[in-house]
Structures are given as C-alpha cells and as structure tokens.
Specification:
- The protein is built from four helices and five strands, in the order αβαββββαα.
- It has a domain of 113 residues: Sufe protein. Chain: A.
- With 189 residues, it is an alpha+beta fold.
Length: 189
C-alpha cells in the first residue's frame, strides 16, 4: 500500500514538474507551421467603428500604437474614440444639463367633465442615472489603458484578459492590435 502511494506521489510530482512554467515559447512546433516574426518599429492601427445600435454608449472605435523591439511588443497605447472621431477622455460619459421644462399652463376654453380646466397632455421623460453612466464610461476608459499595459507587460495578445464591463473595448483592442501586428510581420521568401 505504501509503495502505491509513493508511486502516485512521485508520478504527480513528475507530471507537475513537466508542465510547470510552460510558456508559448516552450510549445513544440507543429511540422509545416512557421513561427511568426515581427520587424522592430512602431505600428498604428484602428478597429472598425461600432455603431450606437450595436454598442450603445461604447459606440466608436479604438486605435492602438504598439512598439516592437527584438521581435516582441514592448510598449502599447490604446485610445478609444466616439463615432465622430472625438477622443473618449475624462469628460466621456458626462451629459449636458437639461433645460428645465416650462410649467404647463391650462388651455383656455377646454373644460373637463365637471368644469375642470384640462392641462395639455405631456409625456414625462424617463429619468436616467447619468452619474452611473459616467462611472461606467470612465471605467471602460481605464480598462482600455489596462489592456495596453497588459500587452506591454506580457508581450502577447493571448495573455491579455477581458475585463468585465469593458467587452466592447476588448473587442476593439484585439482587432486593432491584430491589424498593427499584420503590418509588422516579416514575410518569408
């Protein structure tokens, strides 16, 4: 019994040691597949524009600038813009204060069933949580900066995780980074 347990423990240790610290550079290449290499330089690319219908307040596009040194991404900047090309910055998500509506006056000459004067029928606008919208918008901007930091730190897009609440930015980031990396690919002859 002790021999079986000892054998299992040793097998578990060997198994764990074999796979501990595996990185994408440790992966055995598949025959016929070539490892992609990148030229050093600075590359900029832009994602497609997301419409308000598909993305709500996250509508717009992302632009990424990556720096490659020694064939690896070492720096990254990611900014997002609204569909008109305005940078989403510290004011993004703020709403203009609405003009107060003038009080509704009774319409002269129109009386209700019991002689009451009727007011014009006005539909009330729903109230929006503008503070919450601003907070969400600013969170998405900070997430965009975090995506850029993660790419610069790890050098690999596959190691950049999506942040909950900023999925449209993540989608735009991945698209723009892939387009920038396509510019940097060293074509083999």
């Amino acid at each position: 019994m002790k021999k079986k347990i000892l054998t299992l423990v040793i097998a578990a240790i060997v198994f764990a040691a074999a796979f501990a610290g595996c990185d994408e550079d440790d992966i055995i290449p598949i025959p016929g597949m070539k490892k992609v290499q990148y030229k050093d330089g600075t590359y900029t690319a832009q994602s497609d524009v997301r419409t308000e219908e598909e993305a709500g307040y996250a509508a717009g596009y992302g632009e990424v600038t990556i720096v490659i040194e020694g064939g690896k991404v070492v720096d990254c900047e990611f900014k997002t813009y609204d569909p008109e090309g305005n940078l989403k910055d510290e004011n993004f998500g703020k709403t203009e204060p609405e003009e107060p509506e003038e009080p509704t006056e009774p319409v002269e000459g129109e009386e209700g069933e019991e002689g009451e004067t009727q007011e014009e029928d006005t539909e009330e606008e729903p109230e929006y949580d503008t503070e919450g919208m601003y907070t969400d918008a600013q969170f998405a901007i900070s997430a965009a900066q975090e995506y850029a930091r993660m790419l610069a730190d790890t050098g690999s897009l596959s190691k950049v995780d999506a942040i909950s609440g900023a999925s449209y930015n993540y989608s735009m980031f991945k698209e723009a980074v892939n387009l920038a990396l396509e510019q940097a690919v060293i074509e083999e002859e």
